[in-house]
TrEMBL record:
GO terms for biological process: monocarboxylic acid metabolic process. SUPFAM superfamilies: NAD(P)-binding Rossmann-fold domains. InterPro entries: NAD(P)-bd_dom_sf, Sc_DH/Rdtase_CS, SDR, SDR_fam. This is Short-chain dehydrogenase/reductase SDR. It comes from Alcanivorax dieselolei (strain DSM 16502 / CGMCC 1.3690 / MCCC 1A00001 / B-5) (Alloalcanivorax dieselolei). PANTHER family: 3-OXOACYL-(ACYL-CARRIER-PROTEIN) REDUCTASE, 3-OXOACYL-[ACYL-CARRIER-PROTEIN] REDUCTASE FABG. CDD domains: SDR_c. Pfam families: adh_short_C2. Belongs to the short-chain dehydrogenases/reductases (SDR) family.
């Protein structure tokens, strides 16, 4: 019998860049990486918020630094990614997480719809490919290079008046598969998580009562998820041992997509 290969589950010393790290799933992801021994670059267009998250992580005894990064700014993506790689001596993991929601009906005023479309595509989709392109030269120097793109269950099913968001998130799943195929020969894995309904600032406007009704009717687990529950899956996709998983689109949704009735 051949002996089994030992695959590492350690992220100790891994160098990670998280976008949209000031809040919600980005904040939770930064924290989980850091608690596993990674060095985390917490980036966000809200630079103060990113700074607070990095401080919270350092106060807990782990390693993090913050950068202001608006992912709709192409030049800033290049500059900040280079700064992070320089500060950390390289980069192993990119988490494309930053996002905004923007409900606008297709029959809205043309300018309103065009504005939502432009913002959604720019922040949710275009930024992800730009971050990958900026990170690639550094990821190529890593022993376990990993990319995780955050999409949404809106990429798999859809809600009315959310077409710009749904189109952008479906784009993220296509981008993920295409890059997985293109970068696979270099050992760079590219995977995608589709969160379902998660309690973060993005869903804070929805009344608790409506959240509870929705979750009971639609999810198998009958509740909203916590950002940490998504963060742990994101981090799992980045373990050195997660070396044969690429191009996957994984719902972390309490069974929303699995449930028919
Ligand atoms: P959140 O509002 O708590 O956090 C989003 C973060 O992204 C914020 O810190 C915000 O400042 C940052 N951000 C927004 N625009 C940015 C930009 N242009 N540049 C840099 N940072 C920017 O929301 P969240 O729920 O944690 O969202 C994280 C990701 O998960 C998003 O991509 C979102 O679309 C996706 N998602 C959320 C849910 C949900 O139910 N909360 C479900 C599916 C997918």
């Amino acid at each position: 019998m051949s002996s089994l290969t030992e695959l590492s589950r350690s992220l100790n010393g891994a160098r990670v860049l998280v976008t949209g790290g000031a809040s919600g799933m980005g904040r939770a992801t930064a924290r989980v990486f850091a608690s596993e021994g990674a060095r985390v670059a917490v980036t966000d267009r809200d630079g103060d918020g990113a700074g607070q998250v990095a401080m919270e992580i350092r106060d807990a005894g782990f390693q993090a630094q913050s950068w202001t990064l608006d992912v709709s700014d192409a030049a800033a993506i290049e500059a900040v990614t280079a700064e992070v790689a320089e500060a950390f001596g390289g980069l192993d993991i990119l988490i494309n997480n930053a996002g905004v929601s923007g409900f606008t009906a297709i029959s809205s005023l043309a300018d309103d719809y065009e504005a939502t479309w432009h913002t959604s595509l720019s922040i949710l989709l275009t930024a992800q490919q730009r971050l990958v392109r900026a990170a690639l030269p550094h990821l190529r120097g890593s022993h376990h290079p990993r990319i995780v793109n955050i999409a949404s269950t809106e990429a798999l099913g859809a809600t009315a008046e959310n077409s710009a968001y749904a189109a952008a998130k479906a784009g993220v799943t296509g981008l993920t598969r295409a890059l997985a195929v293109e970068l696979g020969k270099e050992g760079i894995t590219v995977n995608c998580i589709c969160p379902g309904p998660i309690d973060t600032d993005m869903t804070a406007r929805i009344a608790d009562e409506h959240k509870a009704i929705f979750a009971r009717r639609r999810t198998a687990l009958r509740r909203y998820g916590a950002p940490e529950e998504v963060a742990h899956m994101t981090v799992s996709l980045c373990l050195p041992a997660a070396s044969y998983l690429t191009g996957a689109v994984i719902p972390v949704d309490g069974g929303l997509m699995a449930r028919n009735a």
